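Hi C.,

You asked whether I'd gotten around to modeling the 194-residue construct. I have! Everything is below, sequence then structure, no commentary in between.
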Amino acid sequence: MRDGSANEFVLRRAEAADAICIAVLATQVFLDTYATDGIRLALAQEALETLSPAAIAQCLGRATSTVLVAERNGHLVGFAQLTAHSEHELVPFTAAVELNRLYVQEGFTGRGVGKALLRLAEETICASGAEGIWLTAWSRNARALAFYARQGYADLGPTLFTVQGEQHENRLFAKPLGVMARPSQAQRVGLVTK
């Protein structure tokens, strides 16, 4: 439901038609986050290969993938990408889901969009029967590290993330998910889900 107010965000599952907007938003956030010293070949290749509309469309078509989007007035402002049955040696759960990306356009950070997307991701994972969620965050992204800690995620230690053959230290975060009885983050911050 939409009432047309400027502050309303809608959360929903992504559809195939969203691939191009997700790809552009992902590229924008990726470069804003990781290209702080400018664009170089490895970052450009990573963005063009893994965040292209074709790559996002493939992700949307995988049975193990779920992508949730946040929009305002029909404009995409954030998304969360999940992969079911994902394992990592540091993850203590036998049935876990990886949060591959939680990207929010810079102008919408600090407005509850990331929290709402994360909460909806957690609710989606609980409904699937998985035990927990895990993710990696770049060790130089202080804002992301603090955000996940505030959301109750435990830092389980360092891991390496490879971008075009270059290894970068990330931190692995995880959170067990049991029955989630409290009202959803989306409900608490006035976001609408459909």
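If it helps when you're writing up: The chain has a mean pLDDT of 87.

Thanks,
B.
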